[in-house]
Amino acid sequence: MASLCVSASAQGQGSVGQFDGQTDVGKVKRPGSASYDPARQEYVIEGSGTNIWFDHDEFHFVWKRMKGDFILRTNGELLGKGVDPHRKLGWMVRSSLDSNASHINAVVHGDGLTSLQFRRTKGAMTEEKKSALTGADVVQLARKGNTYTMSVAHNGELFVTEQVTDLALGDEVYVGLFVCSHNPNVSEKARFHNVRIVVPARDNFVPYREYIGSNLEVMDVATGHRKILYQSPESLQAPNWLPNNKALIYNSNGRLYRFDLAKKTPTEINTDFATSNNNDHVLSFDGRMIGISNHSKEDGGKSIVYTLPVGGGKPKRITAVGHSYLHGWSPDGKSLIYTGERNGEFDIYKIGANGGSETRLTEAKALDDGSEYSPDGKYIYFNSTRSGTMQIWRMKADGSDEEQVTNDEFNNWFPHVSPDGKWIVILSFGNDVSPNDHPFYKHVYLRLMPVTGGTPKVIAYVYGGQGTINTPSWSPDSKQIAFISNTDSIEKATVK
């Protein structure tokens, strides 16, 4: 069955997806158009025009008005063989819709040329910074003040950047996607998916006291195609995927919520007295129970591990002392593993699912965190700073034979093994973040690697961090993951 597409006319009559309108900029011979497929969350834009160059431009533009700082990101592809090798697509930030307006664009041409092009003042000649990378699949353009940064990548690879630091386009600008055919007598089409317009946290943002909005997303791991299921102005964190494939569970404002995948609606889970839950919550492998980490008033606000039925109920206390941050449940349902802070040291501990005495599994003078069992129960994966940066490690289920899994320039957190035991997803921070920290609201990568080892590849480019994927979130068939991305532009809760 064909997907329903929402189209709009060429001169901005009505919104197109998340954009306010569209228009042909300049005197084009062939009117452009745009359509949005809400089921796939994809845009198709058709445009003509001679060029975006020299002192004026001709192209089709799908835009919205924005102020302040922002991050624009998309996957894009030109459709068909095309006529001119310099047909092009990309992001543009423009001071006005005049053909000779000052602007900047992150552009990918049909012949692969990828560059950051800009006009400093109205009617001035266009300047260019060419990227060393050609044929980009992922295009990001970010503004911070008068600094514009283009980040581009091939699917699965790291970003390559170019930057302009002194471009004044005004506070309120036109922001959007464009297509130009580079031939006035023909029209060209491009398809865009994973389109994200992000408003980042402000500079004086206070972590853990203030929060920005959240996108609850799922992604097809094989294709990288992402869909936003739900948007909220609140902080949603750490989705778990139920084994019956009917719902996700996430935390927000100390409570737990069940998000029905069929109805696309969240419902609060009754956790009785436990109303200060953090984002360390884990499902049992059979999906009947959930373990939580609640900041207990009677323990001075320290995080304590509890368990309760997945449908809700009165939590049962498991750990005697805190801090205890739950991260894993054994496949046989008999044991829980968690990060315990004991005498100033953070290590991995194991305890029976009904409580009892705890067993210390790691003893390195480092931060050990994010522990999770492999589906066969033979190994525990975790992240540790023992090598100097945060890297992924694994050990046998009894804590023996510790071995390093990743060793690269990133700080890698929260290894999640797919239910089929073949893949590991990790959250990777850059070296702008301390190895022992995993803060909110950063540029991060979600990366995928075989459980047998190898170089991780990027599967998602995300504005997020803390709360994005702290806990296991694979779909039961090992084909998708759920995660949280963030933006400060969400005014009300919305089902997508």
Automatic annotation (TrEMBL):
Pfam families: PD40. Residues 12-35 are annotated as: Disordered. It comes from the Bacteria. InterPro entries: 6-blade_b-propeller_TolB-like (IPR011042), WD40 (IPR011659). PANTHER family: PROTEIN TOLB (PTHR36842:SF1), PROTEIN TOLB HOMOLOG (PTHR36842). Belongs to the TolB family. This is TolB family protein.
